[in-house]
Amino acid sequence: MIAVTAAQPLHPNSVKDQVSAAEWQTRVDLAACYRLIALYGWDDLIFTHISAKVPGTEDFLINPYGLMFHEITASSLVKVDLAGNKLMDSPYDINPAGYTIHSAVHEVRHDAACVLHIHTPAGIAVSAQKQGLLPLSQQSLFVLASLAYHQYEGVALNHEEKARLQADLGNANFLILPNHGLLTAFGSIADAFLGMFTLQRACEIQVMAQSGGAELIHIPRQILDGARAMIAGVMKTSSGMGGALPWPALLRKLDLQNPGYRD
User: Fold this and answer.
1) Is residue 40 part of a domain?
2) Count of domains in the chain?
3) Which residue in 233, 222, 235 sits closest to 135, CA to CA?
4) Cβ neighbours of residue 153 under 8 Å, at least 6 residues apart?
């Protein structure tokens, strides 16, 4: 991998010409996802990451290390294989901790086309609580249906951690990393974003509810057990989060407030 100390321009049209239509669409959607994270204020300068599999391969796309999320375009995304080798010329490196986390998930979760990881104050605050996410809101109901935890081992630079992260995640779609942040792993970029929106909102509500100091009402177990059926009913899908339903509207919002991700 090649590290750089300053942003260098790319040639957007040349990237589109070198990839399949399916990969280009994935690049556009992933760049949009990055910009939506920035738009909602969930970014952490340049230090978190979202990846998406290149359709029909085990390779994945991830952010160029050094760009803010609101700057990312379809062409600037870096394509790497599971070993972290860049597969197309790029003046940018990738975040080494991001590589550890995302390659770990993509190695074993072939259903996870997109992996999204953020460090938000509310997410880290809940991750630092021994009981983790509590069943306090309708949003938490959807998350608790498929939630796992992976204990903090420091900045994710040790590749030996990958096996432990894989085991802890299992088949879950949501992962809370105590003292660290939040992660979603879903079959589409739209689902990964909607999953994170739901998890982030559940964390915000939990912190706000706890700040009032009053006794809290927990959602009963019998309702929690029916969460998957409720997701299917609300989102009109038998699997995933139903992210395809709000995704076109999210892109319209992005086109108004931060266009240019399709470059």
Assistant:
1) yes
2) 1
3) 222
4) 161, 164
Label the pairing between strands 78-80 and 114-118.
unpaired
Kindly state whether residue 4 falls inside one of the protein's structural domains. Answer: no
Dihedral (CA of 189, 194, 195, 196) sign: positive
CB 53, CB 108: distance < 8 Å: no
Tens-digit pLDDT profile for the chain (263 aa)?
A: 434 344 444 444 589 999 999 999 999 999 999 999 999 999 999 999 999 999 999 999 999 999 999 999 999 999 999 999 999 999 999 999 999 999 999 999 999 999 999 999 999 999 999 999 999 999 999 999 999 999 999 999 999 999 999 999 999 999 999 999 999 999 999 999 999 999 999 999 999 999 999 999 999 999 988 887 887 777 777 677 889 999 999 999 999 999 999 99
Can you give the residue range of the structural domain that contains 51? 21-257
In this structure, are strands 49-53 and 114-118 parallel, antiparallel, or unpaired? antiparallel
Amino acid in position 8? Q
In this structure, the strands spanning 60-62 and 147-149 are unpaired
CA distances 178 to 7, 65, 154, 204, Å, are 33, 24, 11, 16
- Whether 180 is in a domain gets the answer yes
pTM metric for this prediction? 0.92
Would 2 be classed as within a structural domain?
no
The single residue listed with the structure tokens 């260098």 is 8
Task: Judge residue 167's burial from the number of C-beta atoms within 10 Å of its C-beta, 0-12 exposed, 13-18 middle, 19 or more buried.
Answer: exposed
Beta strands 174-177 and 147-149, pairing class: parallel
Structure tokens at 215: 């006794």
Q: What is the CATH number of the domain that holds 73?
A: 3.40.225.10
